[in-house]
Each structure stands twice: as structure tokens, then as C-alpha cells.
Amino acid sequence: MNIIPEPAWISLLDELRRPSTKAILIGSSDSGKTTLARFLMNSFLKEDKTICFVDADIGQSTIGPPSTISMKIYRRPEDVADPSPDRMIFVGTFNPGKKIPEMINGTVRLVEEAQKEAIDLILIDTTGLISGNLGRALKTGKIKAVKPDHIIAIQRDRELEHILTLLKGYKIHRLIPSPHVKSRRREARIRYRDKRLREYFKESFLLEIPLNRTRLLYNGRIINHRVQYIKSGTLVGLNLNKNTLALGVVDQTAGDSLIVITPLKNTVVIDEVEIGDVTFENGITDTF
Ligand SMILES: Nc1ncnc2c1ncn2[C@@H]1O[C@H](COP(=O)(O)OP(=O)(O)OP(=O)(O)O)[C@@H](O)[C@H]1O
Ligand SMILES: [Mg+2]
């Protein structure tokens, strides 16, 4: 895609050039957040600067598969060609309003992880959920927890002001969307999400997970091994040390084991299965 930069992006870039900066992009769906993020990323890489991209858009994700928050550190322009995330955290839904605490905690954890490295810019892309109480709770909660040095707020009218007014003492850059933004209908968003999931599960295998050695979690809480209540087609996160190594889709339950379809190799150790809120009624093969 050919990105056409806005004049305001150039002065924004100047302000972000200071080392060890954290910036968060907020705006409604189709306001051009991800495109501006790409522009900033490309500009930093051209200047031999390192950038960490935290993709907190669990629906229209660009790094990890949908339903995850993910991050990747880019040190060279060639790194852009490798789509795999450095870390990801399974949230278990495509709807951010349903898991606000998990959305906030996951983003904070990945930002903290990035802060351990020498990074010139940590850039956080977010979902388009900005309206109403849910949008306000999600965005203000995330910003107060992440404490960014810069808030990049892209709005057509004043649709972000109910959020921005609650954020005192932050450096806020108010931008208008690029005239080149193309909006997508709901169906196109679902198609994009399905395509990402289809690609993700392209080379998957059946994996048997013995639950006497693996914790089962829902919403971050351990649940007892009532494995028979887990529906076939449920989307799950396969974790080690609270990092999601892969997604899986439940194929069936067998005794005290969970059999999932996943691209994760059976030699990889996991210590946790996080049950998601999404179920593919027709299983993974017929859904995608
Ligand atoms: N400056 C630009 N130059 C060229 N095309 C653009 C530009 N900004 C946006 N677009 C087009 O508009 C589309 C939507 O923009 P983008 O994906 O950046 O929005 P978003 O706010 O991230 O949306 P979402 O909430 O769905 O993640 C892009 O796929 C791209 O095709
Ligand atoms: Mg986006």
C-alpha cells in the first residue's frame, strides 16, 4: 500500500524523535491509525532507529492473529518482512468491550516487556472502540495504565473529546484523518479477520493436552478440570509463563485431555490453556 503522509505527520514525527518515547494511537475505526503507525515505523527504521509496535487491536490485528494483543521489535527495515510477533497475549474475544481489564493488562505487560530493551519508540495501536462508556473506560484505563509520553488522537469531529477531557497532563496531538482513508464495512472487517485466522491455522495439527499437567483458565482464573464442558470449536490460547505461544481450536475432549487443532509443534511445552469466548460452531476446518 502506498501511504500518502499528511503534513501534520512530519511535525509529529519530529516530536516523537526523542529517545525512549511511548506513544499511543487512538481513533474510531477507519480513522487511519494503523496507516499512520506504519508511516512512523518506516520513518524510524529509515533513520536506523528501533521501534516496538504493540498491536492492541484484537479485531483488526496486524501482527498477531485476531483475539490477541501482540508486539514486535523492528530494528532494521528488513524486519518488516517477517510477520511473526515477538510476544503475544490471548484475550479470547474479537470484541474489546467484553474484556476491558484483560485488554488493559495485556497491553501494559507488553509495553513493560518492550521497555526492558533499548527502543527509540514504543508505538501502541488500538481498536476503534471509542464511543460511549465502554470506549471511554477502555481508552482512559489503558492510557492511565500505560502512561504514554504522547497521545496521538485522530478524530473527524470531536468524537474523542469525552476521553481526552479526562486525560490531564498528557501531551495530546489532535490530528484529523487523512483524506485518503478508505472505510470498510462490517462484512469487510469480518472477512479480513477470517482471512487472518485462516492463514494462521493453515498448517495445523491435532495436539493432545493432558490437563493433569496443564492449568485451565478462563478470564485469567484457574478453573477445575471439568473438561467435558468445553465445547468443540472453542478458541483457546496455549500459554507458557503467561505468554501465548499459539492459538488452538478445541476439536474434542477425551477423558482428562483436551484435543486441539493448532499450528504449535507437539514438542513445545505449555503450562496453561486459556479458554476464549469465541466458538466456531462448525469447527475450524469448515469455518475457514
Ligand atoms: N495516508 C494514507 N494514504 C493512503 N491510504 C490510506 C491513508 N490512510 C488510510 N489509508 C487507507 O485507509 C484504510 C484504513 O486505514 P487504517 O487501516 O489505517 O485505519 P484504522 O484506523 O487503523 O482502522 P481500524 O480501526 O479498522 O484498524 C487503509 O487500509 C488504507 O487503505
Ligand atoms: Mg487499524
What do you see in this structure?
Helix 5 links the parallel strand 6 and strand 7. The protein is built from 7 helices and 14 strands. It has 2 domains: 187 residues, 3-Layer(aba) Sandwich (Rossmann fold); 87 residues, Beta Barrel (Elongation Factor Tu (Ef-tu), domain 3), CATH 2.40.30.330. The model has no long low-confidence stretch (mean pLDDT 93). 27% of the residues lie in helices and 29% in strands. The strands form 2 sheets. The protein has a 7-stranded mixed beta sheet with strand order 4-3-2-5-1-6-7, with helices on both faces. A 7-stranded mixed beta sheet has the order 8-13-12-11-14-9-10, with no helix packed on it. The protein is α/β, with parallel strands linked by helices and 288 residues long. The site of adenosine-5'-triphosphate (ATP) has 18 residues, from helix 2.
